[in-house]
Please model this.
Amino acid sequence: MTRPLAEIYDSIAENFAEAAIAIRIGPTTSPEPPEEALPDLPFTDTPVATSAPEKPHGSAAVCPAHGVEFVDGNFGLYCQQMSDDPEWSNAKGFCRITPKNAAIYMRKAVAAGKR
Model:
């Protein structure tokens, strides 16, 4: 007696599904631990670092040219260092980089190969 083709395909698909599940699950027994296991280290409550850095270098709170923290002034945050770059200094020679234009400075510095 011959079985219809659809029943044959169904049984093949079921066999493949069972095999795939067996492969995914893996062995049902837990693996044995290795002979040379790492020793148990004692847990300590003391932190590794005693304090956080005072100035968050590399963030919007630091001048990208000088690496100093921006200071809050009458017109917002600004860098209070003297600048060598005439494009990024004011008439008195002070740095004019602020958090608002720091991204523009960084793009130009990377394009010029300074960073």
